[in-house]
């Protein structure tokens, strides 16, 4: 079964809640800066994540945001469904 970006977002949001993160996702990005990452997590640090379906690729604007945030010393990720493995995928490891 293919996991959509929306399904991935729901699962990531649930994990964030379980592990005690504050979670932000722009509800309607129509009036937001083009390409800003899908999710922002805050606990003892700030994590930015762009979520994509397995076949999805970031737009140029999304890639530029991820690079700019990383260059500013921020923790950034591009996550796909394969990163959400129940036994230690990157998403779980980062949010644990």
In short:
Helices cover 33% and strands 20% of the residues.
Which terms would index this structure?
96 residues; alpha+beta; Trna Endonuclease, Chain: A, domain 1; 4-stranded mixed sheet; 3 helices; globular
What does it look like?
The chain has three helices and four strands. The longest helix is centred in the first third of the chain and has 14 residues, at 5-18. It has a four-stranded mixed β-sheet with strand order 1-2-3-4, sandwiched between helices. 20% of the residues are buried. The model has no long low-confidence stretch (mean pLDDT 92). The protein is an alpha+beta fold. The chain has one domain (5-95): Trna Endonuclease, Chain: A, domain 1 (3-Layer(aba) Sandwich).
Radius of gyration from the CA trace?
13 Å
What is the CA-CA span between the terminal residues? 26 Å
Shape-level CATH architecture: 3-Layer(aba) Sandwich
What is the percent of helical residues? 25-40%
State the major sheet: 4 strands, mixed
Q: Predict the CATH topology.
A: Trna Endonuclease, Chain: A, domain 1
Structural class: alpha+beta
Tally of helical runs: 3
Taken as a percent bin, the fraction of beta residues is 15-25%
- List unreliable stretches of 5+ residues: none
Mean pLDDT: 92
Question: What is the CATH level 1 assignment?
Answer: Alpha Beta
Order of helices and strands: HEEEHEH
Strand order of the largest sheet: 1-2-3-4
The dominant shape is globular
| Number of domains as seen in the coordinates | 1
How many β-strand runs? 4
């Amino acid at each position: 079964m293919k996991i959509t970006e929306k399904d991935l977002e729901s699962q990531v949001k649930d994990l964030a809640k379980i592990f005690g993160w504050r979670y932000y996702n722009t509800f309607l990005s129509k009036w937001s800066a083009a390409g800003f990452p899908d999710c922002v997590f805050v606990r003892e640090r700030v994590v930015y994540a762009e979520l994509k379906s397995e076949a999805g690729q970031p737009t140029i604007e999304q890639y530029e945001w991820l690079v700019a945030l990383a260059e500013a010393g921020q923790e950034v990720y591009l996550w796909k469904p394969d990163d959400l493995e129940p036994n230690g995928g990157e998403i779980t490891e980062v949010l644990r």
